[in-house]
Amino acid sequence: MATASIQKSQLQMVFQAGVDGEGYPVLKRKNFSSLKTTATPDQMLAVATALSGLQQHVLYAVERNNAYDIHA
């Protein structure tokens, strides 16, 4: 059976920079690499909320991107 282990994790903050001509949100993303693989969703949200106050646009979403190694 194969197993997977997290090798890298990244925090991605998504901001709404406005709306397009059809009324859909225009999104911009900022990535923060070297996130601890053990970081909890609550910790990530707290950091993103604190950092969003320093940004020009409104925080729209917080995402996590993980890279895995898969072993047989």
From TrEMBL:
Xref: Pfam families: DUF1659
InterPro entries the UniProt entry points to: DUF1659
Domain of life: Bacteria
Protein name: DUF1659 domain-containing protein
DUF1659 domain location: 2-71
Source organism of this protein record: Fictibacillus aquaticus
